[in-house]
Amino acid sequence: MKTVLLGVMLILILFIIFLLHRFTRKKHSHMLVKLMVFHLYVYIGLLFFVSYHFFSVLPYHMWTDEVNALFSIEARSATNHTASPRLANFKQPHSNLLHVPLINQFPELPRGCEVTALAMLMQYYDVDTDKLTLAKQVKKDTTPYNVIDNHVHFGNPHNGFVGDMYTFEEPGLGVYYEPLLELANSYDHVTAKNLTGQDFNDLLATVGRHQPVLVITNITFKPLPSEAFTTWQTTDGPITITYKMHAVVITGYDKDRIFFNDPYDGQMKQENKTDFISAWEQMGSQALSLSIND
């Protein structure tokens, strides 16, 4: 439509120029020439106006509308998603993005992705803490690293942080959701909600209510091959782990992507939703969120 309109206006301008040329050569009245020049300026002005409106202003609005659709901060009343039965009364926005503080685990905490992710959650709610404080406070499983008959004996991340959080020079792994829940709940006015084992749509619904979600995943954010996992012995029995385990904070989503804060480099990233969900489920569907009590 806009191309046709511009074409018509251009033809009109050329026609007026043609008439001006003819009338000038035939020495028509000076007043008529002035009138035609006036119309020429009008059409040229309209041409520039339409060109600006369609090729400058409109694309800008189209772009900003698209960005707002993908990264909406305010909850939408309309949705194309079907809420899970447990959240049937909540209208989940079709996209959302929260502004959660970005924190880099390095250089102080090479293995401290979990407490760094928790620090992001805490600071989102203006809780006065940081990654180093949380690193000291999180419960530890102090079981020493041993290899007996080619079998590793080490701690259980369900019980506390396993190994050394501060250097790769010593054995270590990380921590799962239970000690993180316990740590968060130890803060006044903070309530940590266990979302482990829930449907991923429940996590998205939580984000849609402006509550970021901490998840345990792996560093690739895609399903890992079986050889990426190993089994070691703990005081509670054998446990299967991967040294690629990681923790991030989900901050948003749209139809095809998950947006998250990655403590590994302190950057906001995005990943294909299907891959991200599969990686999360492979790590036991571990997740938690926070809320503040008045």
From TrEMBL:
Keywords: Membrane, Transmembrane, Transmembrane helix. Gene3D superfamilies: Cysteine proteinases. InterPro entries: Peptidase_C39-like, Peptidase_C39_single_dom. This is Uncharacterized protein YvpB. Residues 98-264 form the Peptidase C39-like domain. It comes from the Bacteria. It comes from Halolactibacillus halophilus. The chain crosses the membrane at residues 6-23, 35-55. CDD domains: Peptidase_C39A (cd02549).
